């Protein structure tokens, strides 16, 4: 049986339609178990989460990324956040890639990262937490 945890973080003061938080799931058994056992990483910003994962040498192929958005967990596309070499993009390249993806797809969970040249998440903490169970 899977338990669904409710997580609440403060929404953006500037734009309440932005995701509340971002989460990364890393299978600590690396696919070798009967089912995955996940460590969880959190940040109020996607760039903060990516920076935290990168500092811990967690690569894009090892993690599932979610935007906790409007009460839903939305799976994000890791390829949007990686360069041609497969490594995580860093700010400001990451911000531009997310905004370009939003303009192409109009998927709301990618909106606001570099809108009109400014970060919509400037009022958020960019620190990341994890791993936590």
* Number of individual domains: 1
Mean pLDDT: 81
How does the major sheet shape up? 5 strands, antiparallel
What is the global morphology?
A: globular
Distance between the termini: 16 Å
Number of helices: 2
Radius of gyration: 14 Å
Q: β content, as a range?
A: 15-25%
**Share of helix, binned:** 10-25%
Counting helices, strands and paired strands, the structural category is: alpha+beta
SSE string, helices as H and strands as E:
EEHEEHE
> Which consecutive residue ranges, at least 5 long each, have pLDDT under 50?
1-12
* Assembly category: single chain
Total beta strand runs = 5
The main sheet orders its strands as 4-3-1-2-5
Summarize the model shown.
It contains two helices and five strands. It is α+β, with helices and mostly antiparallel strands and 133 residues long.
Which secondary structure elements does this structure contain, and how are they paired or packed?
Elements: E1 21-27, E2 38-43, H1 46-55, E3 63-69, E4 72-75, H2 93-105, E5 128-132
Antiparallel strand pairs: 1-2, 1-3, 2-5, 3-4
Describe this structure in words.
The protein has about 130 residues and is of the alpha+beta class. The chain has one domain. The chain is built from 2 helices and 5 strands, in the order ββαββαβ. The protein has helices spanning about 45-55, 95-105; strands spanning about 20-25, 40-45, 65-70, 70-75, 130. The longest helix is centred in the last third of the chain and has 13 residues, at about 95-105.
């Amino acid at each position: 049986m899977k338990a669904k945890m409710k997580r609440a973080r403060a929404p953006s003061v500037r734009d309440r339609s932005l995701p509340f938080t971002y989460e990364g799931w890393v299978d600590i058994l690396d696919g070798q178990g009967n089912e995955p056992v996940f460590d969880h990483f959190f940040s109020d910003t996607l760039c903060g989460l990516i920076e935290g994962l990168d500092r811990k040498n967690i690569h894009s192929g090892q993690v599932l990324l979610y935007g906790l958005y409007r009460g839903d967990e939305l799976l994000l596309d890791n390829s949007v956040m990686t360069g041609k070499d497969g490594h995580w993009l860093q700010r400001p390249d990451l911000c531009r890639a997310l905004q370009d993806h939003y303009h192409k797809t109009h998927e709301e969970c990618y909106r606001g990262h570099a809108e009109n040249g400014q970060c919509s998440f400037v009022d958020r903490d960019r620190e990341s937490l994890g791993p936590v169970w």
